[in-house]
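Consortium newsletter contribution from the modelling node. Members have asked for a concrete example of what our holo predictions look like. Here is one, prepared for the aspartic acid complex that several groups have been discussing at recent meetings.
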Amino acid sequence: MKKLLVVLALSFTALFAKPNVVILATGGTIAGSASSQLDTAYTSGTITVDAIIAAVPQLKDIANIKGEQVSNIGSQAMTNEIWLKLSKRVNELLKRKDVDGIVITHGTDTLEATAYFLDLTIKSDKPVVLVGAMRNSSSMSADGPLNIYNAVSVAINKESKAKGVLVAMNDKIHAAREVQKTNTTAVDTFQSPNTGAIGSVFYGNVKYYLAPVRAHTKKSEFDVSKLNELPQVDIIYAHANDNASIIDYLIKNGSKGIISVGMGNGSLYPDSQNLLEEAVSKGIKVVRSSRVGSGEVTLNGETNDEKSGFIVADNLSPAKARVLLMLALTKTNDTAKIQQMYFKY
Ligand code: ASP
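And here is the predicted structure:
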């Protein structure tokens, strides 16, 4: 009888126990403040993770929350070093039985690249959700508190498992590979131009409509657990009357890979194309992406990639093409294999 009571008590506790979520704070406007509610001047990364959590007392009703400060920067100052630290910490936390999901507060400028880096380096099915804000914490109608409440709601939702790293912003759920910041100031800035959002989250009510199909998390071959740095990969932006000497500079200054943000379908100014071919001949990997903002860059389309030794980014944004090339170069130097990675991830 006593045994039965213990079993009943334990099952009752398990049934009504709240999930455990760790909020890792990195900075950004969501942790920013200004001197008045309508001030357009403000500073990112001025309030701590504890203050962010305290501003949303409703979180306690849905989850047990713990906070950790990873950095407190404007995400324009994001580094490979912080990415590695964040990925290792997330992997460490997700191995624990008492952690059910993770929310990462982040500046919006580089949020999508961090999300994709984690999507390719986290080895768990448990939900990892990135969130930011377009209005700082002192602002009138700040979007941070509801965005955080929604992000935690996504992190504790059973359907969020095994969907890769997610981004919850402005009532929408996006897949890490697809999401992009598309407007400098608007609260609906995050969009997934090639596929659309995969779900919605409305005052904590989570609904999914799609699931990502590209390889991520447990199906990804990239392992950063023993890495302290990543290969140097640079990005150059193509334009009419291009100044190709920038490429010459990169060739001479340690670049292991160059992401070309080409015109249209990744097209290049002739002088730039010549110098990028020279880069390839020196062992530097060159990936063609596009400045257009959506759509694939076609392999051997108007540009003959096979002849030039170039790789195409498929429909990855330039910032994410850089993330993938850095990780690819930790595995192989083979151009054909790296090309396949752009079609797999
Ligand atoms: N510059 C800020 C950042 O990325 C912008 C933001 O968070 O909205 O940290």
